[in-house]
Amino acid sequence: MKALHIITGLGVGGAEQQLRLLLRHMPMHCDVLTLTNPGPVAEGLRSDGVRVVHLGMRGNRDLGALPRLVKFIRRGEYDLVHTHLYRACVYGRLAARIAGAGATVATEHSLGEDEIEGRPLSGGVRALYLASERLGSATVAVSDTVAARLEGWGVPAARVHVVPNGIESIRFRFDEGVRRSTRARTGLPERAFVVGGVGRLVPGKRFDVLVRAVAALPGAHLLLAGDGPERAALRLLAAELGAQGRIHLLGERDPLGDSADGRTPGIPALLAAMDVFVSPSREEAFGLAVVEALAAGLPVLHVTCPAIDDLPAAQAPGARRIGTGTDELIAALRGHMEAGVRRLPPPPVVRRYDIARSARQLLDVYDLALSAAPGTAAPPSPVPRAGTVPLPQAQPPEPSASNTDGAERARR
Asked: Are the C-beta atoms of 108 and 153 separated by less than 8 Å?
C-alpha cells in the first residue's frame, strides 16, 4: 500500500508535527507533498526517511498548482491520498478525484467556532470546504468537539470519524536531572516557581494574559515556547510590566526532543523545568500541549481543551478548567505557588492519547475508505517502511467516554 500525505505547509505547528509523529507509526510507504513552506518539519521528516516534495504553490488562488498536483498523484500511483489543513484539503481532494486515486481521506486539525486555521469562517470559506469535502472518501476529526462542528456545518455524520491526536508519552516522562540541567541552560534559578506555556504566538492563544499573570507574581518566571507575530508585542508588554527578566520567550522548540547538538532544550526538557502549565487559549480543536504537560506530571490550568473537556474529570485529575479573566489566573497560580512544587503521576488520559493507538484507528479509517472506493478490492496488507515496526492487527477503537454521539463516531 502506498499513501500520499498532502499538507499546506511544513513550518512548526501542531498539525505538521502531528503528521511527522504519526508517520513514524504507520506501517506502509508514505510520501509527503507540501504545497508551500518546506520548513523545519520537512527536514525532520526527511531525517526520518520520508520523501518530502515541495509543490511551490504561490497562494490560495494559484490555480496552476492543481494540474501539477494531479500529475504528481498520477505518477505516484498512490492507493490513498490523505490531506491536512484547509488549502491542502480543498486542492488535494479535487486533484485526487481528477487523478483517479483509490481513496481520499482528510483530517480536520484546526476547526473552531469562528475560525479555521486562523482565517474567519466566512460563508465562502465554508461553502468551498463543503464542496471539496464531498469529493473525498472520509473526513477525520481530531476530537469529538471538531466532529460536532463538522456535522453542524452539514458534513454527513457517516463521513466523520474521530481519530484523536497522539503523543509518545515516554518522551515526556519526568526526570529530576533533566529538570536541573534545563533550568541551568535557560538561566532559571534552581528554586524559582516556573510557569510554562507552549504554542504559536498569535492573538487567539491569549498569551498576553499569561504574561500579565506571571508578571503580577513576584519571583515567578514564565517559559513560553513558540514563535509568531505576537512575539514583539509580548516582549514589549513584559518590559512595560517590569518583568522582562522573568518572562522568557524561547522561540520555536522541537516537540520531540533537544536539538541535534544537545544545546537547545526541546519541549520535553522544558516541561521538566516547569512547575505548572497554562493554556489560556479561548478556543482549541484538541489541545495537544496540555496532554504533553500532563504526561510530564505537571498540574495544568486551561481555559478550553477538547482533549480533556470531552472526557470525564477522572481521566485528567491534574487538569483544572478556569475562566478567561486575568485575576482568576493570577489567583490560581498563586495557589500553586503557595502550595509548593509537586509532580503528579501521568493520568489515564495520557494512555488514551498514545500515538500508536491513534495510528491503529487511522488504519481502520483507511480500510473503510479503500473498501468503499469504486472498483477497489479489499485493501492490501500494509508493507512496512524501512525502520518501522509492523503494528498488530488494527482493532476497533474504544468508544469515547464523553457521550453516546462521540462513541458512535469513534465506532464508524
From this structure: no
